[in-house]
Amino acid sequence: MHDGHVSVTSAWSPASTIEHFGGDEKLARELIALFLNSCPRLLDNLRARLRDDDLAAVGKAAHALKGSISNFTTEGPARTALELERLCAQGRRDAAAATLQR
């Protein structure tokens, strides 16, 4: 049963990430570390802009998050970030808030 949470491991693998970066495992590890360090800040920014009812800023932040995630997968969390970006462009704050919770 799907509980609304996305499993990153189902769409991501270390091998595919290393392949994405031309087989450069060191580069892949460095970019993963950068992403893991920046992700909490990106998510905090999304939440803060949503609290401010600044959907344009939420959409821009979701776009940036989608770009970062897309270095590793185009599934799961990348699709959720894309959905969030689209909902913000449509002015659908409540749906955007629910999507951000995922």
Q: How many angstroms does the end-to-end distance come to?
A: 16 Å
- What is the approximate shape? elongated
Helix content: 55-70%
Uncertain runs: 1-10
- What is the count of β-strands? 0
Q: SSE order, as H and E? A: HHHHH
Helix and strand content put the structural class at mainly alpha
Instruction: Quote the average pLDDT.
Output: 87
| Major β-sheet annotation | none
Strand content: under 5%
How does this model look, in words?
With 102 residues, this protein is mostly helical. Helices cover 70% and strands 0% of the residues. The protein contains five helices and no strands. The chain has helices at residues 14-20, 25-51, 55-69, 77-89, 93-101. Helix 4 (77-89) packs antiparallel against helix 5 (93-101).
